[in-house]
């Protein structure tokens, strides 16, 4: 359970595993935002493949990173959202941001 | 009384409004309702709803203090699950507005979708609140009974 950051050719990949709730999201947010401020990546990938549970704090986490990235002119994508999170993702409308892959 | 409406078990859980307890509440409720032999999807729905209600107590009701969160959970012979999540925090002035999708007082890291999720993932949702007294969220969901004999 946690977050792994990988930086390659100006692309930051954040692989999140385990449960995303208000408690864990605070830590993930801090780590990613610190990294963004330090390294100024051109592109950010949030990989949700290993996420086992998520509530709306996870939606807020995605929206927050999207806004941060957008304001800095960074491209952001969210990949590998597990099937079990589909209902929540659908309900949230974040598909409209055009960042899900 | 009809046999199928019997309350077969009940639990109470009180804990401090610390964010580490969000996963504790989810895990505890999941373990308790396991007696009804729910499917993985049913457990996920209930875990998500509980997580929303408890997170609201922590981030809104007790946003500038640590208070106690009270959960009561009852399960019924017919597969009904009743969950009450209560706080003694700041309360909600306008409940209808608070329950509107995307409404939030929580800033840019909150989606304003907690109540919408509770409503959609559970069968019933009722919210009552008094400013400076606290808020009670009552949720109900009936799961399909497949293995009645597992509850004694
Ligand atoms: N227990 C509570 N005590 C006081 N205010 C609450 C409580 N629960 C909800 N609210 C109010 O209702 C609003 C809507 O709650 P809801 O859970 O739908 O969204 P949110 O918590 O703001 O965002 P999200 O749940 O998506 O992270 C909150 O922003 C808050 O103002
Ligand atoms: Mg909420």
Tell me what the structure shows.
- The complex is a heterodimer of chains A (101) and B (152).
- Chain A is an alpha/beta fold and 101 residues long.
- Chain A has one domain (2-97): STAS domain (Transcription Regulator spoIIAA), CATH 3.30.750.
- Helices cover 41% and strands 34% of the residues of chain A.
- Chain A is built from 3 helices and 4 strands, in the order ββαβαβα.
- A 4-stranded mixed sheet of chain A has the order 1-2-3-4, with helices on one face.
- In chain A, strand 2 (11-20), helix 1 and strand 3 form a beta-alpha-beta unit.
- In chain A, helix 1 (22-39) runs parallel beside helix 2 (56-71).
- The longest helix of chain A is centred in the first third of the chain and has 18 residues, at 22-39.
- Chain A is globular.
- Chain A starts with a strand and ends in a 9-residue tail after the last helix.
- Chain B is 31% helix and 28% strand.
- Chain B is globular, with a radius of gyration of 16 Å.
- In chain B, helix 1 (21-33) runs antiparallel to helix 2 (40-61) and helix 2 packs antiparallel against helix 4 (114-121).
- In chain B, strand 2 and strand 3 form a beta hairpin.
- Chain B is α+β, with helices and mostly antiparallel strands.
- Chain B has helices at residues 21-33, 40-61, 95-98, 114-121; strands at 7-16, 68-76, 80-87, 124-130, 134-142.
- In chain B, strands 1-2-3-5-4 form a 5-stranded antiparallel sheet, covered by helices on one side.
- The longest helix of chain B is centred in the first third of the chain and has 22 residues, at 40-61.
- Chain B has one domain (3-144): Heat Shock Protein 90 (2-Layer Sandwich).
- The A-B interface holds A 19, 21-23, 25-26, 29, 53, 55-57, 59-61, 63-64, 67, 84, 87-88, 91-92 and B 19-20, 22-23, 26, 40-41, 44, 47-48, 51-52, 55, 58-59, 106, 108-111, 113-114, 116-117, 120-121.
- The structure holds adenosine-5'-triphosphate (ATP) and magnesium ion.
- Magnesium ion binds next to helix 2 of chain B.
- Adenosine-5'-triphosphate (ATP) sits between chains B (52, 56-57, 60-61, 87, 89-92, 98, 103-106, 110-115, 135) and A (56-57, 60).
């Amino acid at each position: 359970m946690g977050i792994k950051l990988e930086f390659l050719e100006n692309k930051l990949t954040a692989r999140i595993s385990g449960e995303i709730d208000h408690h864990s999201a605070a830590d993930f947010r801090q780590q990613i935002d610190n990294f963004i401020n330090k390294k100024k990546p051109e592109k950010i990938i949030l990989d949700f493949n290993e996420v086992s549970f998520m509530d709306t704090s996870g939606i807020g986490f995605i929206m927050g990173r999207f806004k941060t990235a957008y304001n800095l002119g960074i491209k952001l994508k969210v990949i590998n959202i597990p099937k079990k999170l589909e209902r929540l993702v659908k309900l949230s409308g974040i598909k409209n941001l055009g960042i899900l892959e | 009384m009809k046999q199928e409406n019997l309350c077969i078990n009940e639990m109470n859980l009180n804990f401090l409004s610390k964010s580490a307890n969000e996963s504790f509440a989810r895990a505890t409720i999941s373990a308790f309702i396991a007696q009804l032999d729910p499917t993985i999807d049913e457990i996920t729905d209930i875990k998500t709803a509980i997580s929303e209600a408890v997170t609201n107590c922590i981030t809104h009701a007790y946003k500038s203090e640590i208070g106690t969160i009270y959960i009561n959970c009852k399960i019924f012979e017919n597969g009904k699950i009743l969950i009450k999540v209560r706080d003694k925090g700041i309360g909600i002035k306008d409940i209808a507005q608070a329950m509107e999708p995307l409404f939030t007082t929580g800033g840019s890291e909150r989606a304003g979708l907690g109540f919408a999720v509770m409503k959609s993932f559970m069968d019933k949702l009722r919210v009552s609140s008094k400013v400076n007294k606290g808020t009670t969220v009552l949720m109900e969901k009936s799961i399909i009974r497949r293995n009645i004999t597992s509850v004694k």
